Amino acid sequence: MIIFWIFIGSVILLLLWVIVVYNALVALRNEVKNAWKQIDVQLKRRHDLIPNLVAVVKGYMQHEQDTFEKVTSARSKALSASGVYDKALAEKSLTQALHGFFAVIENYPVLRSNENAMHLQEELTTTENRIAFSRQLYNDLAANLATKIEVFPNNIVASLFSFSKAEFFTADEADRRPPSAETGIRTK
User: Fold this and answer.
1) Potential cystine with 39: which of 71, 101, 134, 167 (Cβ 3.0-4.6 Å)?
2) pTM (2 decimals)?
């Protein structure tokens, strides 16, 4: 009779352990999804600010059409990208286009004194910092989820309920190279 109760107690403990691990994995998966949505919110804010900044400076920079087209095209690609990897690549292109755009703005003293242009540029810079923080949080949570899924004995529960790892925001090969000394600022 005691063996029966030991068996029942063991089954109950095993079941409780599975429930605890399953709930922890669900909570972590939801945190990763939430972190991705936070990135998405910041990216939308960024995408909304760009047309305003372009509109403010367009009148001053009539002969910089190529710069406007690069920013507009990169923004369109970023808006239509889906998935973590595609979104990361599109946002990287947009960031590069914006850096070129900001470098061109530096060549126009009138724009540097324009309150609207400077305010929008500051808002974009703040948003860039928020995006960087959100990406870091997302990657941290994705790493925590991957660890939780891979460690024994959690991996048994994870495979039983088909939990999968989240995709990381990663730097591509160009981002891993040391930066060049070129500033991108053109002189006239």
Assistant:
1) 134
2) 0.70
